Amino acid sequence: MISLLIDTSNRPLSVALNRDGFTLAEINTTVKKTHSATVMDYIDKLFRMTELKKNDIDRIIVAKGPGSYTGVRIGVTVAKTLAFALGTKLYSVSSLFVVAASYSKEGIVAPLFDARRGNVFGAVYNMKPDSFTEEVAPAHMSLKDLQTKLSSYESSVILLDGQENISANLEDFVHTVPRISLIEQFETALEEEDIHSLVPEYLRISEAERNWMEQNKS
To answer: What start and end residues bound the annotated signal peptide (predicted)?
Structure first.
């Protein structure tokens, strides 16, 4: 089975082609660029490197959020468009779980993304070699709340892109960026989606929506 995997949820970008869960080719970047300008070029490069054709794809897997509003939307839109055009299956996975899988070690891990104003998008997973338990579901919360949740475990590791601003508020974390090529060993983390109904998982309303609601309170 050939899988195309896409994650543009945050500043890092990760795309890969896997065969039967093993990586054929992948491109991972952490440069600050607009993903809409690069993701299709990188996907084309994967096909050139592997000498596969787009019609060889059996399924597309996309990180559906949380993360940057624009980043998540780009990845989901590209995945849906390709799945529709190629008539292939579409699966989604939490962007936070992609980071947990990218750590590639066992134990209690808490991947997080900076959500600004002292808040994070976070989750807690108990990771094993080819399985996991979701201890805390992905949510928008304060960094303090996440740390409180982790205090109930004897040992835990916070996973974070060290270039995010929230890192300045943490004394101990492991710099981890997504490698979406690694998630297929955790099949239960994947959810088959209807192409037309899949929407990004933002986990919070946008600032523009929040401002509008404040201005229109009755």
So the answer is: none
214 within some domain = no
- Three-state DSSP at 13 gives strand
pTM: 0.93
Torsions phi, psi for 66 (to 5 deg): -75, 180
Number of domains, the chain: 2
Residue among 108, 111, 120, 3 nearest 50 (CA): 3
Alpha-carbon dihedral sign for residues 12, 13, 16, 20: positive
In this structure, the dihedral spanned by the alpha carbons of residues 139, 145, 147 and 150, taken in order and rounded to 10 degrees, is: -70
Tell me: do 40 and 106 sit in the same domain. Answer: no
133-172 pLDDT, tens digit each:
999 999 999 999 999 999 999 999 999 999 999 999 998 9
Q: Is 71 helix (H, G, I), strand (E, B) or coil?
A: helix
